[in-house]
Write a structure and sequence with these properties.
56% of the residues lie in helices and 16% in strands. The chain is of the alpha+beta class. It has 2 domains: 1-90, Winged helix-like DNA-binding domain superfamily/Winged helix DNA-binding domain (Arc Repressor Mutant, subunit A), CATH 1.10.10.10; 93-179, Arc Repressor Mutant, subunit A (Orthogonal Bundle). The longest helix is centred in the middle third of the chain and has 16 residues, at 75-90. This is HxlR-like helix-turn-helix.
Length: 179
């Protein structure tokens, strides 16, 4: 999957959950989706609009009311929704899924399938700040989705990060969506 799309997709908290629910067959109307995701109305609306702007959702012609439209997945959206569904299957626990709603969690897991240095992760992600990346790496390490090891093979030791446990499964789900 294109890293820029993944970064854009996960910049809104409920995007993955909305896509996973649509993939699971939940109606494309707002009320059932809000109930299925557990999102507040304002954050749900922002995420829904974001998915619409990314070209992953479209209005379902001939369905819904102008004030209460029904949405459906575009062809591009179906591919991304399948990936979101696989990720949701890996992390069914709502507390753990709340970690996935953080902006940089999924993109970091996408690039740490192989051991990577901080600078390599940062360059792969593009616009992430050092502080945001460092904080996200710490959260993922606490969640035990990422392992931090110290590479002593060089003159100056440095940390390397590698997705493990559910983090590695999420990495593989993203990689499967790229094919």
């Amino acid at each position: 999957m294109n890293m820029q799309l993944l970064v854009n997709l996960t910049s809104k908290a409920w995007s993955l959950k909305i896509l996973a629910q649509l993939h699971a067959g939940v109606s494309g109307r707002q009320a059932p989706l809000i109930t299925a995701t557990g999102a507040s109305r304002s954050s749900f609306a922002a995420s829904l609009e974001h998915l619409f702007q990314l070209g992953l959702l479209e209005r379902n012609p001939g369905h819904g009311h102008p004030l209460r439209p029904e949405f459906r997945l575009t062809d591009k959206g179906k591919v991304v929704a399948a990936m979101a569904s696989r990720i949701e299957e890996i992390v069914p626990n709502e507390d753990a899924f709340s970690v996935l709603r953080r902006s940089w969690t999924v993109p970091i897991l996408a690039v740490t399938g192989a051991p990577s240095r901080f600078s390599a992760i940062k360059s792969d992600l593009g616009p992430v700040t050092d502080r945001a990346l460092s904080k996200s790496l710490g959260v993922l390490e606490e969640q035990e989705w990422l392992r931090r090891d110290i590479d002593l093979s060089q003159r100056t030791p440095f940390p390397i990060y590698h997705a493990v446990n559910a983090g590695l499964k999420i990495n593989q789900a993203i990689a499967a969506g790229a094919r």
